[in-house]
Request: fold
Amino acid sequence: MSAGTGSAEIELVNVTRKFGDAAAVRDLSFTVGNGEIVALLGRTGAGKSTAMNLIMGTIPPSSGTVRVAGFDPHAEFDKLRGKLAVSFQTDRLLPWRTTSENIELGLQILGVDKVASRRRAAEWLDRVKMAGAGDKHPHELSGGMRQRVSLARALAVDPQILLLDESFSQLDHVTSKSLRRDVSELVRTLGKTCLLITHRIDDAIEMADRILVLDIPARVMLEVRPTAADRADPARVRELHQEIAAAMGGDEASTH
Ligand SMILES: Nc1ncnc2c1ncn2[C@@H]1O[C@H](COP(=O)(O)OP(=O)(O)O)[C@@H](O)[C@H]1O
Ligand SMILES: [Mg+2]
Reply:
């Protein structure tokens, strides 16, 4: 266990997941400590989404153990309700609902009443810099704005753990950069535990306390710990970028 303040919130021990004869994840072990931001970084096909599904409990491992907040996420799926929130590459907002209604939905499922959930939605829109957009429908917003709403929806249920699966990957670099900054600041301020899954080296360096670079099939081959000082120094960022790109097998790994 590392930078986190407490025990491991997410723990994988020697996890293998096969589809037929092929392993999408092989012998994968890592932990994410309480309050830590960890990036799982790997090329397309490395098994990142499979790792994410194992952590969400939508699929069981073929062998090994997965623990999330102390539970087996597949066998004890219900126990993680409200503790774990997920945001994906596409915003997955319901187009016929306003942004506020999209955020309220998750709260109402957890039993928060209508007045309180409307108020919480407004607070969260404010925190993701979308104050006043509560009455807009998703089609009236840009991709970056929709992704902000999607993140507000994930965070509004006050989860212990936030999973981000390629949440910044479809945005252009400028939009993605400002969103990454805002989200990592929010997550750090709130002390959430966060696992970011990405194929983009920049996303990982910008956000994570610890970057786990994955081999194919998913297995940690390199661990990098960027500090705030590293992030503030463009030369150091370039150095880290090159080190990671080399491990991932060439510079084209930075964009694909
Ligand atoms: N449900 C599935 N059935 C069969 N093969 C799968 C399934 N999900 C993923 N795979 C395979 O596992 C490998 C890893 O996929 P995935 O976890 O989606 O990687 P990533 O998210 O890193 O791109 C790929 O070769 C993919 O084809
Ligand atoms: Mg994926």
